[in-house]
Amino acid sequence: KAGVTQTPRYLIKTRGQQVTLSCSPISGHRSVSWYQQTPGQGLQFLFEYFSETQRNKGNFPGRFSGRQFSNSRSEMNVSTLELGDSALYLCASSLPWTPGTGELFFGEGSRLTVL
Amino acid sequence: GQQLNQSPQSMFIQEGEDVSMNCTSSSIFNTWLWYKQDPGEGPVLLIALYKAGELTSNGRLTAQFGITRKDSFLNISASIPSDVGIYFCAGQGVGETSGSRLTFGEGTQLTVNP
User: Fold this and answer.
1) DSSP per residue over A4-44, as a string?
2) What integer pLDDT is reported at residue A103 of this predicted model?
3) Residue A83: helix, strand or coil by DSSP?
4) Residue A98 and which of A29, B15, B42, B112 are 20 to 30 A apart at CA?
5) CA B74 to CA B86: how far, in whole Å?
6) Burial code of B74-94, b = ≥16 C-beta within 10 A, e = fewer?
């Protein structure tokens, strides 16, 4: 069974640009979450999508957005990039939440560097 | 953002030693998860815990869901060099409104000397 696939793995952007990251979840998983990982803040929840709807959102500015397609694939976008947006962006897929099904499986991440 | 208190932050041990790390929170969680992350990779799920008091093993790893639902610990027995990495605890909130959202600890960096 293929795992969570994220593309691109690495990218470099300059301040003010925008970026789109892609995530393909494990087959059969319909919930996709995004996390930002930085040395200073650790792993922080960005948002979660299920059935093409945003179900949950973390405390990030509106420059961070996402969407989910009918095949459960998801994209996240960051506009007007700032230096502080440099981070590893992780996508996780899971079954829709029900008691006893809380396991999230992560991709390898997209390493974004903003210059 | 909210984080769990995970300790210790780092550990330096000899191969063959046992390791213990724990997480505490001011909030209760429905689920506790333990992950391991290698450099440049995403976190890999090690153990999932769903009931207060639950004790679960996965090979040399053992984890427990605290009775108060506000803490969890992970033990690694007879450590080996490939155990090197960062270990994260993560708590999942109560109720469907929390969805799959995880709150992560700060991580424990484990170094194993051969």
Assistant:
1) -EEE-SEEEE-TT--EEEEEEPPTT--EEEEEEEETTTEEE
2) 86
3) helix
4) B42
5) 13
6) bebeebeeebebbbbbbbbbe
Please answer yes or no on whether B102 and A59 come within 8 Å at the CB atom.
no
Backbone angles phi, psi at B97, to 5 degrees: -65, -25
Measured between CB atoms, does B104 come within 8 Å of chain A?
A: yes
> Distance between CA A43 and CA A108 in Å, rounded?
14
Chain A residues with CB within 8 Å of chain B CB: 4, 6, 31, 33, 35, 41-45, 48, 50, 55-56, 58-59, 90, 92, 94, 97, 99-100, 102-109, 111
Angstrom distance (rounded) from CA B91 to CA B93: 6
Cis peptide before B114 (omega within 30 of 0): no
Peptide bond into B43 cis (omega under 30): no
Q: Report DSSP state, residue B105.
A: B
Copy the structure tokens of residue A59. 């405390």
User: Across the 115 residues of chain A, what is the mean pLDDT of every consecutive 10-residue run?
Assistant: 90 98 94 94 93 92 97 97 98 77 89 98
The first and second tokens of residue A71, run together, are 């095949």
Q: How is residue A97 annotated by DSSP?
A: P
Measured between alpha carbons, how far is residue A32 from residues A25, A49, A66, A90, B104 in Å?
Answer: 7, 5, 10, 10, 17
H helices present in A43-109, as ranges:
none
